[in-house]
Amino acid sequence: MATADAHAAYKPQAYIEIDTPLVSAQGWPLTLIELALNRGIEEHKLLRGTGIFRDDIAQKNILLSPQQCFQLIANIQKYNLHRDLSFLIGSRLLLDNPTPAQIALTHARNLQEALDIVIRYNTLISPLLKARLDYQQDRVMMYWQDSCGAASSEHFLLEMMATSLSALSRWKSAQPLPWQFYFCCDKPEHIEQYQVHLPGQIHFNAPVNAMSIAREYLHTPWQKVSADVFTRAEQLAEKQLAKLDSAQGFLAETYDYLHNNIHRAPNLDQSAADFGMSSASFKRKLKKHNSHFQAQYDQVRRDLTLMWLEQGGWSTEQIAHKLHFYDVANLRRAFKKWTGAPVKRKA
Q1: Number of other CB atoms surrounding residue 239 within 10 Å
Q2: pTM of the predicted model, to two decimals?
Q3: 345 and 318 in contact (C-beta within 8 Å)?
Q4: What integer is the mean pLDDT of 8-18?
Q5: Other CB atoms within 10 A of residue 145 CB
Q6: pLDDT reported for residue 56
Q7: How does DSSP classify residue 10?
Q8: Of the candidates 218, 219, 215, 235, which has an alpha carbon nearest to the alpha carbon of residue 227?
Q9: Distance (Å, rounded) from C-alpha 304 to C-alpha 87?
Q10: 59: Cβ–Cβ under 8 A, 6 or more apart, which residues?
Q11: What pLDDT is stored for residue 180 in this prediction?
């Protein structure tokens, strides 16, 4: 994660909104539609409210907005018998009509390079979830965060992306790697799908959505890689990223703004002004993305508390002061509310 101690004010960068066309329909959305139809979900129910027409996306390179993707997932989630679809999509994410960034990912020389590609080309590989890396003493953590207002679709996307990265590392290493997976949700009824598709330790009711692995696995050479294919794919991905002005989702940009300005005790009015809009407009935009200012602010303060506790060297009094709590008692109550755990407990 980026440091929050920089004294210079961080200004908002370009961002993508929930209704911005962004996701290639011929990628995972088309695969998901075909799988759902093969499972017997009627087409008019599957595509209801999405603005997606099956014939169009099969024949044209159409871009879907995050909102369209969320509605498609929501329609599928109404059918509780199809809870393996997120895992199946994740296992095929890099195989069905892969983008240049995804091709580069499959030709990474090792896990470290693969994780760097996910971060560099996040908007191209995982536009709906923001990936963040944090190197701890003996492990590396990959955090996943809602980027565009996924709401109830977020868990489907978490299952999909965790499966995708786990499957890639297993494929390129020719063996399952000992990942640990962390999900904020309760233990689900379809736990068998996790056990099949996410080999490793799985933790529910975690304070954050993440996956981690020991750093000793980062530099083990991967098999079946081509430097030429990697270079060509990376060049194309750079061009695509430039067209997007390196933008990320609105919620991800709001998070970065609050995270990097935490020393200024950012409030709604100042944040809105920095985003170039009135407070009322900023509140409406957050609501449009299924969130609100306090939720975003608390998410940042939760993550910073966890990071500083993990790093050590900070007393709870110091953390409370840095996060603008009146006293330690208020920090403890807030942390318990955010994570369900005492403030001294590490992630």
Answers
A1: 9
A2: 0.92
A3: no
A4: 91
A5: 20
A6: 83
A7: P
A8: 235
A9: 30
A10: none
A11: 97
